[in-house]
Amino acid sequence: MIVAKFIGVVILGYLLGSIPFGVLIGRRSASVDVRQHGSGKTGMTNVLRTAGKKAAAAVVTLDALKGVLAVVFAGLIVGREFLVVGNFALGVLVAQCLAALAAVAGHNWSVFLRFRGGRGVATFFGGLIALCPPAALFGGEVLIIGAGLTKFASIGSIAGAVGTYTILVPLTIMNGFPIEYLVYALIGTIIIIIMHRDNIARLISGKERKLGDKAGKRELPPSNYRRNRDSQQPQTGSME
User: Fold this and answer.
1) pLDDT tens digits, residue range 71-108?
2) Taking all residues of the chain, what is their mean pLDDT, rounded to a whole number?
3) Is residue 230, in this structure, part of any structural domain at all?
4) Would residue 237 count as lying in a domain?
5) Looking at the 3D structure of the chain, how many domains does it have?
6) Smallest Cα–Cα separation from 83: which of 68, 69, 73, 98?
7) Could you tell me the residue range of the domain that residue 152 belongs to?
8) How far is CA 130 from the centre of its chain?
9) What is the pLDDT of residue 88?
10) What is the CA radius of gyration of the chain?
11) Nearest to 212 by CA among 167, 168, 164, 152
């Protein structure tokens, strides 16, 4: 029974994360499909550029709520039961962290959007708000300061995620915070960095959009620049 509960909270977390609020609100508020503009992502930054501030505020709130609800529901479902794996007894904190990570995965690879989506930042922070508010608050401050100083949402997002892990190291070692929170922050940070790899490439090349820039037609990922260029050249009959 407890195995079924653990599987259930992961599935529930994924389905919650998969709800494409960015697409739904973009269509309702501005009659646009955010996937066809800017980065093609469904998160707050692309919605801000495509549909405006009010739509972006609604999206970031609802995307964060997905992480919060995943944690809350996991706690209610698993309760005080434990899943015994070898010498380890996995309790509600593990279930909640798994559910929150599943919500991040659902946001990034939504079953409703053919496994596309956003970058998972708001949902990651939503999960952390429910798990460990002090770490979420610190990381959120780093995110806001980083984005504000550089004018790049991508830098703020990466810095904020790294900040959550950084603060949880001493909180875990010195203050006895559950190690599950640290593991959640580590995995979530890795996911967020990976999801920002195209932004990192554009930052290096000087082509990254700043906050406040309007979204144009959908951007090609850096890995596609050469492929797109080569497709416009005469074919030689050879294969790379």
Assistant:
1) 999 999 999 998 888 888 899 999 999 999 999 999 99
2) 90
3) no
4) no
5) 1
6) 98
7) 2-216
8) 15
9) 83
10) 19
11) 152
